[in-house]
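Private note to self, pasted from the team thread so I don't lose it. Backbone tokens:
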């Protein structure tokens, strides 16, 4: 049974675009894109792909009702800058996946999102950074880690350059993790994830 996916976003949606482009390999169908921002370009990407969109601001009940109506099995947060409510997390235990632009647990927590992550990475002078796909739980960026990919940034000079290199990694591991989920190849034991090939 093909799993039904909802993507939540607040920005440009390059991660969504990769999922749209690879959709036939995911064994999942993107049935809904939700944003908390009317002008998120990711909504335009969804409309161009004939995917239903919704702009919902501070209305947890509306989100839950829409997910149930669309029979969503997996929620993907791809640059979603609103708080995910505890109701939603409870209703979708280990069925909400987030992409974070660093190697968690480094550079995580309150305020660590988007370019701010790469500014912290740049400021700290680390030589290796990367991206993490993880399940969402009650904590901020603390859910079970599904997949990570690292990159050497010792040749880069600005947070923006780091962001671009990390984004390339995101575009690789997010679809891979979603495909594994849709193919029921992800196992979680005591908070640790194992992906079966
Ligand atoms: C990505 O950098 C992702 O790591 C972060 O938000 C950004 C979304 O980028 N969570 P896009 O909107 O998918 O291009």
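Design output:
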């Amino acid at each position: 049974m093909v799993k039904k996916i909802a993507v939540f976003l607040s920005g440009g949606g390059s991660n969504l675009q990769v999922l749209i482009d690879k959709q036939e390999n995911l064994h999942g169908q993107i049935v809904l894109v939700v944003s908390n921002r009317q002008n998120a370009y990711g909504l335009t990407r969804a409309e161009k792909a004939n995917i239903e969109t919704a702009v919902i601001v501070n209305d947890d009940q509306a989100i839950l009702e829409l997910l149930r109506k669309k029979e969503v099995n997996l929620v993907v947060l791809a640059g979603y800058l609103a708080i995910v409510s505890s109701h939603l997390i409870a209703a979708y235990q280990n069925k909400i996946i987030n992409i974070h632009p660093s190697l968690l647990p480094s550079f995580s927590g309150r305020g660590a999102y988007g370019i701010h992550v790469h500014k912290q990475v740049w400021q700290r002078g680390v030589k290796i950074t990367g991206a993490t796909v993880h399940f969402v739980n009650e904590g901020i960026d603390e859910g079970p880690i599904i997949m990570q990919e690292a990159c050497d940034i010792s040749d880069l000079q600005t947070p923006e350059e780091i962001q671009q290199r990390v984004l390339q990694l995101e575009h690789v591991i997010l679809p891979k993790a979603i495909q594994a989920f849709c193919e029921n190849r992800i196992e979680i034991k005591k908070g640790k994830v194992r992906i079966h090939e």
